[in-house]
Design goal:
This protein is an alpha+beta fold. It has 2 domains: 82 residues; 237 residues, Jelly Rolls, CATH 2.60.120.200. The protein is built from 4 helices and 20 strands. The strands form 3 sheets. It has a 16-stranded antiparallel beta sheet that branches. A hairpin with a 4-residue loop joins β12 and β13. The chain is rod-shaped and about 165 Å long. About 3% of the residues have low confidence.
């Protein structure tokens, strides 16, 4: 059977109303406030100090001293850095000055090296006789004499009343403007015997024929202009309009013949360099274009290259020439003449040609 009696209950149930929540636990009493705050309670180090009221703070006195010391050290360090910078700036300035001095020294050295590599005939050759149209004695615009710049001075002095003027070409280079009436004499006949007696010699000339030849012109000679006389002759020989050019003959009085001669019959109206080199009757070794030659006694170089060579065909005359060295011409411009008593080496010949090309603005040499 079912027991219909109600069971006992610990909760009051009001029918039709919500259930009530359980009562909360009572609040605990508050912890009492501290009336003073000690420094140790607020901080775990001594970097800051607080007043008793707790409303002001400051850096701890001990730390203030440390900070002041650090500031002083920083100031000292900054001053030291400034001094170091000043020293560094001074060192940089000194280094800059030293570099400028070094650059100047290098420029001087480069200039000296450049000067040393430029061929100087006075040093490299030291010729016996050397005349240039820029080194003359003149009066009234006419040349009285050409001064010898060589080691044994023999000035070319005027012969007679006629004197040649100086001229200036399109490149501003000075020349002696010879005409048929002009001639200049240097020394006495005995001074020039080495040019015809078989001894070594070198003759170099810078000249210009502005027009083609119509007749033979003698530039240098010691034979008084006669082939029957003993002496030497450097001429511009005219045969035809197509056959004309420089010739050098060493003449001997016997039979009016020549001991040796070289020539190059090619017309030209430009500035020329001419080198005539006699190796002497001993026929010692002669270097031409880098090759040692043992046979040619005489070589002619024209405008920087060898154009003629010859061996002796007759015995040289040991007599003095008929005349002193004479410089003449008809319409030839003379820039420079060198007469030396030795055969030039290949270096000397090439060096002189390079010097002449530069000095007289000779194109194509």
């Amino acid at each position: 059977m079912t027991d219909d009696k109600p069971k006992a209950s610990t909760a009051l149930v009001v029918r039709g109303a919500p259930a009530l929540a359980a009562r909360a636990a009572p609040l605990a009493a508050p912890t009492p406030l501290t009336t003073t705050i000690e420094l140790a309670d607020a901080f775990d180090d001594t970097s800051l100090e607080m007043n008793v009221g707790g409303d002001k703070f400051r850096v701890a006195s001990t730390l203030q001293s440390t900070i002041a010391t650090a500031a002083e050290e920083a100031t000292d360090a900054l001053a030291a850095a400034g001094a170091a910078q000043t020293t560094a700036d001074a060192a940089a300035s000194a280094a800059s000055d030293a570099q400028a001095d070094a650059d100047a020294a290098q420029a001087t050295a480069n200039a000296a090296l450049s000067a040393a590599t430029v061929f100087d005939p006075d040093i490299e050759i030291d010729p016996l006789h050397w005349w240039r149209a820029t080194d003359v004695t003149e009066s009234g615009g006419l040349v009285d004499s050409l001064n010898d710049l060589g080691s044994l001075a023999k000035n070319f002095a005027q012969v007679g009343a006629a004197r040649a003027p100086l001229g200036t070409d399109v490149n501003g280079k000075v020349y002696l403007d010879l005409t048929a009436a002009d001639s200049y004499l240097a020394g006495v006949a005995a001074d020039w015997a080495f040019l015809n007696n078989g001894e070594p010699f070198t003759i170099a000339i810078v000249y210009h024929r502005p027009t083609l030849l119509t007749a033979t012109e003698t530039l240098l000679q010691t034979g008084a202009g006669l082939s029957a006389n003993t002496g030497i002759s450097v001429s511009l020989v005219y045969s035809t309009a197509a056959l004309q050019g420089p010739v050098c003959w060493v003449q001997r009085a016997s039979g009016g013949t020549s001991a040796i001669g070289v020539s190059h019959s090619v017309p030209s109206t430009v500035i020329e360099t001419l080198i005539i080199q006699n190796n002497g009757s001993a026929q010692t070794a002669l270097t031409v274009n880098g090759f040692v030659q043992t046979s040619p006694d005489m070589v002619m170089r024209r405008r920087g290259r060898e154009v003629s060579r010859a061996t002796r065909s007759q015995t040289h005359s040991t007599a003095n020439p008929a005349n002193a060295l004479t410089l003449a011409g008809i319409t030839t411009r003379i820039y420079e003449v060198v007469v030396d008593n030795k055969p030039w080496s290949e270096r000397q010949a090439l060096g002189w040609e390079d010097y002449a090309r530069s000095r007289y603005a000779i194109a194509g040499l």
